[in-house]
Amino acid sequence: MTTTASEPVAAGVGPAERRPLMTGPALLMMNLGFFGVQFSFGLTQSAVNPLFLLIGADPDQLPLLNLAGPVTGLLIQPLIGAVSDRTWHPRWGRRRPFITVGALLCAVVLFVFPFVGILWLAVICFWLLDAGNNTSMEPYRAFISDRLPKSQLARGFLTQSMFTGAGAVLANLSLFVLQKVPALEKEAGNGVPYWMYVCFMIGTVCILLTVLTAMARTRELTPSDEELREIRSAPKGLHHAVAEIADAVRSMPVAMHKIGVVFLFQWYAMFIYWQFLAVSLGETIFDATPEEGGAGWDAAIGWSGLQNAAYNFVTMVSALFLVGFARRIGAKRVHAVALGLAALSLVWLSRIDNQYVALLPMIGVGIFWASAVGVPYLMVASMVPAKRTGVYMGILNMMIVVPMLIQTITFGWIFQHLLGGKGNNAIMLAGVLLGIGALAMLWVNPPDEADESPIVPLGSRRSITVYDRVVVGSDGTPTSLYAVDRAAEVAQAAQARLVVVTAYREDGPAPAEGAAGVHRDIRGAGAAREALEKSVTGLTKERARYIEQRLVAGDPAQALLDTVGANPANLIVVGNRGLGASQGQLLGSVPAGVVRNAVCDVLVVQTSALDEDRMFAAGTSGPVKEGESSAG
Q1: Whole-number CA gyration radius for the chain
Q2: pTM for this structure?
Q3: pLDDT given for residue 5 in this prediction
């Protein structure tokens, strides 16, 4: 069980591979704040533009009024990323202060926003709201990368995508549902209906509750002494932060440049979609325009919220599968397919005249959005230096906001003069641009080996071809299950046979409890069979093509050695600690015996990283030394 508290954890052992694994509940808690942040962002997508129109803006002014998003993202996210990379406080940590301050600013602005009745004041509120969103969002993504070992990054960003979808679903559903409440249909003195007030109040509570809870109950890892010295010696100030951004741009992996080409079309199109969805639905379905207003226009606003809720619901579901597909066929192809689906969906949406049929294209948009909010960040987090994650996440966001900035400056004229002032034409153009983005993604060649992501490859998985069989021992304990999981990954990459071996003793006395360096054997075939079944429960043919199970009576180390025989093309996978290994001992008795006698390669998995409670133990005063464990 993971203990949670607000103080940073003195667990900094340096490399990312030595970060302790997080339990499922701890991962969920860490990502909970994305729900509130995305609720706030969902309101900026679906409610702010209709609110602008309600208090007097013209449709062709919407692109320019949305200038806040790209400008604040362009300036704030990379700067906050660079500054947070060089920040450490013994109590508040590195990323949490920025996440919390951004959330508090969002909460204040969300509360005030619907009371504003003057357009220029609403624009100021929008700028402040976007500044708060950006201040929270970028350090939050870096926080996930800081906290997780590389083996859990995919799961961490998947969980982020799920909470992102859930927050946006609630934000957009609230727009649709509250509009139907008779008591909230009346308008306030500024022309804003009361149901919109309630939406913004819910957003205020959501972001405060989720972000503050997540930050209070998730601890940051204390940097190593070397990292702390580097942070303290790094020059401070705005000038040096800008210089850090410039240096990171010059040295960033080639794969990031290629992602930027695709983002140019992708995010220009999405900004069009968010701004003109309600206008398009009003024209094609509800026979209403913002200039005329009335019940038809209110219905278009509410239905646009339902449309966005629908695609974000699909995002929650499809996020469960996209990372697996990306690992199998490459993120490049997955994201290209997702872009193509979104392109077809928006072109179709622009021609639909039935409100219920209009929900169907949201399936394609939702699949695309699951890829857009997860896969690129995961790739970047796995290909850049850990100590510069913050600044690179900010640079990735610059690749998003620059196309948005171009759109706000150029699209007003395009909408009025080339598209005839029609919202459905704008949505069709967004679909065409997403299609170009899909082709651009296919045009991108996989990067060199040095630039490829080891977690979610940009091209396709590079296979390991040197092993015929991957043999792993398991006694059903959490540490051995972790070794089995890693062995399955290697077997999948090598297209090799995975052999899971469980050894047991038929009779004889058990070793004394806690005997130094001695493995505590399984007693009896029945107990061994249960342990073996537990070990292979999660291994499907998608994880490893060929799976073999073996129950062996005898010594565990010798069972592994006998299974591989004299074939040097096999691989043995063992955890680094035997159950009885003494404190300070690097290898338990079983892995030590295997390493000493094997004729083939041996992969020693760092299973002691699972001992998160040890690393987070109260009173820890310094970094945990390699090989230390609380296992007796």
Answers
A1: 27
A2: 0.59
A3: 36
Contact 508, 535 (CB under 8 A): no
Rounded to 5°, the CA angle 409-311-402 comes to 25
Q: Dump the DSSP string for 126-138.
A: HHHHHHHHHHHHH
At 619, list the tokens: 């009173």
Could you give the dihedral angle defined by the CA atoms of residues 423, 427, 433 and 437, in that order, rounded to the nearest 10 degrees? 150
Tokens of 627: 């090989």
Return the DSSP state at 605.
Answer: E
The span from the CA of 19 to the CA of 4, in Å, is 16
The structure tokens 């010594």 sit at: 555
At residue 193, φ and ψ (nearest 5 deg) are -65, 155
- Report the chain's terminal Cα–Cα distance, integer Å: 18
DSSP conformational letter for 622:
S
Where b means 16+ CB within 10 Å and e means fewer, 70-100 reads bbbbbebbbbbbbbbbbbbeeebbbbbbbbb
Q: Which residue has the tokens 């646009």?
A: 304
Beta bridge partners of 299: none
SS3 169: helix
Please give the pLDDT value at position 2: 34
Q: How far apart are CA 577 and CA 518, in angstroms?
A: 10
C-alpha 624/C-alpha 632 separation (Å) is 17
Any idea what DSSP says for residue 501?
E
Read off the tokens for 437. Answer: 């983005």
8 Å CB contact between 611 and 630: yes
Task: Please name which of 213, 199, 192 lies closest in space to residue 305, comparing C-alpha atoms.
Answer: 199
- What are the E-state strand segments in 320-425? none
Encoded tokens for 28: 């969920």
Whole-number pLDDT of residue 15: 42
Q: How many CB atoms lie within 10 A of CB 322?
A: 24
Buried b (16+ CB within 10 A) or exposed e, 596-629: eebebebebbbbbbbbbebbbeeeeeebbeeebb
In this predicted structure, what is the pLDDT of residue 120? 81
Nearest Cα to 88, choosing from 220, 218, 211, 213?
220
Pairing of strands 571-575, 546-553: unpaired
Instruction: Give the 3-state secondary structure of residue 567.
Output: coil
* Helix, strand and coil in the chain, % to nearest 5: 65, 5, 30
**Under a CB-based contact definition with an 8 Å cutoff, are residues 330 and 459 in contact?**
yes
Q: How far apart are CA 106 and CA 96, in angstroms?
A: 15
Single out the residue of 55, 61, 46 nearest to residue 192, CA to CA: 55
Which phi and psi angles does 475 have, rounded to 5°? Answer: -115, 15
Cα separations in angstroms, 350 against 271, 279, 344, 422: 16, 11, 10, 10
H helix runs in 518-632, sequence order: 525-536, 556-564, 589-597, 612-615
Q: What is the pLDDT of residue 463?
A: 52
Query: For the chain (length 632 residues), average pLDDT per consecutive 10?
Result: 37 47 82 86 76 79 74 72 74 85 90 84 85 81 77 73 81 80 80 84 91 88 75 67 74 78 92 90 88 80 84 82 74 89 96 94 92 76 68 76 85 90 94 94 66 58 65 82 83 78 72 47 78 74 66 85 80 71 54 82 75 45 36 28
Neighbouring-strand partners of residue 503: 552
State the Cα–Cα distance between residues 7 and 91, nearest whole angstrom: 6
